[in-house]
Amino acid sequence: MPAEFSYNDRYGIRPGNRWLAPAIFFAVTGIAWLLWAGLHHSNPPIRYSLISYAITSEKEISVRYSVQRHDKDAVVICTLIARDFQKNVVGQIDDEIEPGLAQLERTTSVQSRGPAVNADVISCRRK
User: Fold this and answer.
1) What CA–CA distance (Å, rounded) separates 44 from 61?
2) Residue 46 burial (CB count, 10 A)
3) 54-85 pLDDT tens trace
4) Which residues cross the membrane (predicted)?
5) Class of domain 46-126
6) What is the pTM of this model?
7) How many other CB atoms are there within 10 angstroms of residue 19's CB atom?
8) Band (119; pLDDT cuts 50, 70, 90)
9) Contact 107, 63 (CB under 8 A)
């Protein structure tokens, strides 16, 4: 009587997917990191945005911007710049915002050494 045919005897047993456990580990770790990074960086302690600027004279430009901070008792320093037509920085100041409101809007003048055509808020940071 012939023996029963077995594919396992003929071809061998295929090993399991060895990559499955590391793939699941890296997927869970990557998704957790992605969620943390997205939530952490989407809600910074200080937010700022340029609202408008106006050229008040050949050597001065007025910058209007808003600042939002989590800690209303923190002193914040914002760096404002003025640029000329070739995008060279012709004026820069550090505007210090005292403790007070958590959300505020400011208008500050930036003196320039030449004719400025635009202005920007480069950064805001805690003192």
Assistant:
1) 28
2) 18
3) 999 999 999 999 999 999 999 999 999 999 99
4) 20-39
5) mainly beta
6) 0.72
7) 8
8) very high
9) yes
- pLDDT of 30 reads 97
Cβ 81 vs Cβ 110: under 8 Å = yes
Rg of the chain (C-alpha set): 30
CA distance linking residue 37 with residue 1, whole number of Å: 67
Domain boundaries, the chain: 7-41, 46-126
8 Å CB contact between 118 and 90 = no
> Considering only CA atoms, which of 106, 113, 118 is closest in space to residue 61?
118
Tokens 């071809």 belong to 11
pLDDT digits (tens, 9 = 90+) for 78-111: 999 999 999 999 999 999 999 999 999 999 999 9
Tokens of 9: 């005897």
Give the list of residues 6+ apart from residue 91 with CB closer than 8 angstroms, or none: 61, 81, 82, 110, 111, 112, 113, 116
Quick one: pLDDT band at residue 1, thresholds 50, 70, 90?
Answer: low
**Using the 8-state DSSP alphabet, how is residue 14 labeled?**
P
